[in-house]
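HUMAN: You are asked to prepare a plain-text protein record giving the amino acid sequence and the backbone structure tokens, both parts labelled.

ASSISTANT:
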Amino acid sequence: MSVDVDKPAQPPADAPPPPESIKAIPVRHYGRWVAALVVIGLIALLFRAFASGNVNWGAIPQYMFNGDILKGLRNTLLITVLSMVIGIVLGVILAVMRQSKNPVTSTVAWFYVWFFRGTPVYVQLFLWFNLGLVFQYIDIMPIYKDEWSDFMTPFLCALLGLGLNEAAYMAEICRAGLNAVDEGQTEAAHALGMSHGRTLRRIIVPQAMRVIVPPTGNEVINMLKTSSLVIAVQYYDLLQAAQNVGRDSGVVVEMLILAATWYLIATTVLSIGQYYLERYYARGSSRQLPPTPLQRAKARLSGGFNRSAGGVG
């Protein structure tokens, strides 16, 4: 007797019919469409207002790479970098002083943070500029001696005003990062015979960087924008250059828009650098790092190509 193995088995006559497949109907969110249309309409009205305004838009690309504008941009980037270097180095020192068991050093660090965080940076710039009323001469016996007005140049005034103010904020950021590391890490390092300084360098600081880096990136971006206040002490920055060019050429508002454009470009570049720096220091806490924007774009392009070719995207 032969059996046809290729023939499918027939269900019994009294078996219930198979269940129908569930057809999911997506919920329609009409509110989202209405909100999107309202936002698009407002953006269109805003663009229309700027396009029909009495603004010489052709002057912006004309002066985009003007020599005075580029000089102001270079000075802005220079004062930003140097001020952040002073702020970070001094902030780390102040954070360690705040953690010290010595009451004198911890009190001095606390007072520094209290004063510089409690007064506006604009006021501090004027104070540095006018300290000649208190110190008429700067006298470093074997090295340097001069009048305060000659010593405190606009560049030095801007550097001290921004850098020392930033140090107070960086001190709190670094202190928060150091406190975020579990105390067991320090105890284990000391049990292995490591000194306090070596424990900070090898154990505490590398782990604290994951907490310190994101707000530090924000501080760099904020410093770039705050540097526009140095116009108060006559330092030639991007804003000062834009105002000078606008006054000489008669396109004041256009040059302010140009300055805002350069600030946006610089902050965008810094934001990209901050993203990759945060991603670098996240390696110790994440098993799998999220894809970068470039990797996501390549994945979408390759997925679309595979679908168009008949493959699986």
Summary: The mean pLDDT is 82. The radius of gyration is 31 Å. The beta strands are 137-140, 144-147. The longest strand covers residues 137-140.
